Amino acid sequence: MILMFYMGVIITFEDHLTPSLQAKVAEMVTRTLGDLLYYPESECLTEFPSPESLKNRIIISTKPPKEFLELKDKGNVLANERESSGEETSGKDTVDGGLGVEFDADDRSESDQDDEDNNACGDNKSCQPAPPPEYKRLITIHAGKPKGGLREALRVASDKVRRLSLNEQALERAAASYPTDLVSFTQRNVLRVYPKGTRFNSSNYKPIIGWMHGAQMVAFNMQGYGKSLWLMHGMFRANGGCGYVKKPDFLMQNGPRNEVFDPKKTRPVKMTLKVKVYMGDGWHLDFSRTHFDTYSPPDFYTKVYIVGVPADCSKKKTEIISDDWAPVWNEEFTFPLTVPELALLRIEVREYDKSEKDDFGGQTCLPVSDIKQGIRAVPLHNRKGEKYKSVKLLMGFQFQ
What we know:
Blueprint (H helix, E strand, L loop, with lengths): L1 E4 L2 E5 L6 H15 L3 E2 L19 E5 L6 E3 L2 H12 L39 E3 L5 H4 L2 E4 L7 H4 L9 E5 H10 L1 H10 L1 E5 L13 H4 L5 E2 L8 H9 L13 H4 L18 E11 L1 H4 L13 E8 L6 E4 L10 E10 L6 E8 L7 E9 L6 E8 L5 E13 L1
Parallel strand pairs: 2-4, 3-4, 4-7, 8-9, 9-10
Antiparallel strand pairs: 1-2, 5-6, 11-14, 11-18, 12-13, 12-15, 15-16, 17-18
Helix pairs in contact: 5-6
């Protein structure tokens, strides 16, 4: 797995190698990457490097290798696998009990699966040689399946930077029960979130939960077109669309009283965004005359959403303008925002249909922090996020 992170690249290894092969990997990686490779001088990082120091560098992430163990009793291996896979409905708050930490109960193919219980060599176990130090020192970000419950997995170590993987369900549980622990963890460590294994249709989950708790890697099914992917497109339109968005300072540092940011906490309104939808045009150029209605012009309306922390989430809708390819609404909506730094403005145009589901007429998503005050022609996109040639909304934005 290769991920863009900060201004460098993280390569995640799926390691099922013997010590001798690990030594060969270390030699190949060092020879191939040369000065591009970043790794700590000590055994592991105690503090994550700055973005500047990682520019044009490559770092390695995987679980630190342990002594490889070989169980003589094959039945014990199968029993351990069944026990570690667990069920999410078991109600046990343990990492191995299907909490979705490092791997999901229905997704055993995750790259971060840990080896089975291998703390020591017992009577029925034989140890192979220790892993080579030249391989261990290349691992900049340590991953692995922690012991204990979900809160224990989020515990911040003062002497080590590590990477934790949660499936979407485990993230939701952590956000509901331990929101400040989650934010504290992401201040010093790397959190990866991935879709649950039962999303066989490539659908997606709500990414804003991960973002507002500081998760650095929120993985998507990129072929799963829909509202969640539109939000991702909107988030990464920020910062010039370069693919990197800096977290707000309050997610990286504690407040003046050493308080940790809690997305669910009620705060005073920081700013008010006024959005005016004047009119829309261009559908007659990009769609056939019968695309929306066979015998009459379309009946368009616009939906405007704020997606962010719970206190800021809101949705508004214009009136339906009947039989008009260039509808004029002239409607203004007001959105009070307590955390504008995490807010996204999602816009969607629909065509009203009395007998069936309303037809899709275009969408876009914009980070509030990047919106410029004034009247703007806002291009709309199709379901895949591709910009229409002609379809636009004339909109006005004002901050108070």
